[in-house]
Amino acid sequence: MARKISNRRRVIMSVIAWALAFVIFFPILWTIILSFKTEGNAIKAPWDVLTSSWTFDSYHVVQERSNYFRHFMNSVVISFGSTLLALVIAIPSAWAMAFVPGKRTKDVLMWMLSTKMMPAVGVLVPIYLMFRDWGLLDTRTGLVIVLCLMNLPIVIWMLFTYFKEIPKDILEAARMDGATLGGEILYVLTPMAVPGIASTLLLNVILAWNEAFWTLNLTAAKAAPLTAFIAAYSSPEGLFYAKLSAASTLAIAPILILGWFSQKQLVRGLTFGAVK
Amino acid sequence: MGQITLKGVRKAFGDVEVIPPLDLEINDGEFVVFVGPSGCGKSTLLRLIAGLEDVSGGEIEINGQPSAELPPAKRGLAMVFQSYALYPHMSVRKNIAFPLKMAKLDQAAAKEKVDNAARILNLTDYLDRRPGQLSGGQRQRVAIGRAIVREPAAFLFDEPLSNLDAALRVNMRLEISELHQKLKTTMVYVTHDQVEAMTMADKIVVLQAGRIEQVGSPLELYRTPRNKFVAGFIGSPKMNFIEGDEAAKYGADSIGIRPEHIEVSTTEGAWKGTVGVSEHLGSDTFLHVDTEYGLINVRGGGEIGLHAGDTVFLTPDLSQLHKFDAQGQAI
To answer: Residues B188-247: pLDDT tens digits?
Structure first.
């Protein structure tokens, strides 16, 4: 029999849950509110901020001063580009590790994960110098490569756990049925792993979209994505809360909308394999 | 044509030799069953024939062609897996047509073959469903359909019925036997269930620890088991074994007698005992009798009115007595 939960308990738990959710969401909400205020009103006490008049001024200024659309396109190209490149590399690697594991497969997986534990700044100088020599600084190609490499361990790990769930028999059946290795991956493995691949793609697009360390350090103007667009408004020369908020809102809006519509897929992706 | 010859085939995983070198001849059109306890290497042997595992030594010839180095699809064999191994994202039609698609057969010819297989297997009404919407028996039929359309030299079945419930298993057993009669294609069937082996096989291969203990028709194995292992494995309920002085009387190290070859009497007989449990099945009665030689199982007629605690006398049918030496080999 299912556990009985009294109504009172349910109400209290709901209130706590909503309160926690509100606290977590509050910084984003406040950013959005500030983006609709004038610079003068934005720095007032919280109550005065809420009661002051609403305006689109900050958005106009932000759009005039910097090209939102170009940054947006850079973000799209970099985040999707790096994720797709990572998938192309990760699907065969995860296949190999899930279905023909060797003695050292586990060690390789652990090693890949361990690279994520290293602070990125530790390799900034060598990567910067390489990028400079190869002419990759401030290019989308350069960022696609570096973000792909940064997220590759996570992509391979996620796909590996998905592929592990696919019965080996089915791939063997495909082999008996005359599928080549390519056919096996293309016609059988990939379609069966679509939910897993989709949530891996989504999560990594979000990670790449929000990535600020490499995008800020390796770009200047041409390839700068939305993270650089926000950073441009946190200037040391003065307080531009409203404009900074407007820029931030514009930067997070696309990924927030994407995340909202795909949350079911994302949650499924993150908990996959936990429950059989 | 579906002649399969194994010559000195050996398989080792690392240092562990799971199949010592063995020879086996499977003739065209034969229904051969590999039977043995769990872990005896029967599935591995099947997978070696299929090409899903590489041999560590020896040669596999299919229709006279050396095939040990060929990839699975090039061997002309089709396999039906225990787990069905259907493609869950494809309809039944696409599942059955998959091998034809891989062989790049044109669509009209493929459709005809799929429809034909569906008709043979009573799947015509389910062609547009996904495997998830089918029952266990239907799924197994789809797996068989996928094998049929390839028109293989031989079918390989890896414990295909062990995921089905008892009633369905009996039905599918019949269906596979009928299919064999209809197609007359070589079938190699792996099971741990000796009833399946006895009822379906033309030839049974009894395996233990990767070694072939005996090859023969079901009745040959039943009547003249080569050793104690085969004697105990084939036949249900199991053969009774008696060792010591009683066996020495018959000039053997141990003797074996099947439960159906023992006569029960309440007045006189060779061995005296007490009925422990009696199982009345209606058609038969299984008596578990405690004797001075140990527990002896007896299969009697359905009308035997004996119950726990009754004293009985057992007399073995001497013409059906099996004698074994100290190594367990039949004398």
So the answer is: 999 999 899 999 999 999 999 989 999 999 999 999 999 999 999 998 889 999 998 888
Q: DSSP secondary structure string, A226-260? A: HHHHHHTTS-TTS--HHHHHHHHHHHHHHHHHHHH
**pLDDT one-digit tens code per residue, B294-314:** 999 999 888 888 888 899 999
Contact criterion met (CB < 8 Å) for B81 and A192: no
Fold designation for B238-324: OB fold (Dihydrolipoamide Acetyltransferase, E2P) (2.40.50)
**Residue A165 contacts B where some CB pair is shorter than 8 Å:** no
Identical fold, B4-231 and B238-324:
no
Pick B4-231's CATH classification: 1.10.10.10, 3.40.190.10, 3.50.50.60, 3.40.50.300.
3.40.50.300
Domains and CATH numbers, chain A: 7-59 (no CATH), 66-232 (1.10.3720.10)
Burial of B28 (0-12, 13-18, 19+ CB in 10 A): middle
A192 touches chain B (CB under 8 A): yes
CB contact under 8 A, B98 and A192: no
Comparing CB atoms, the residue among A170, A176, A194 nearest residue B78 is: A176
Q: How far is A102 from chain B (nearest CA, A)?
A: 12
* Distance of residue A207 Cα from the nearest chain B Cα, in angstroms: 30
Complex ipTM over 0.90: no
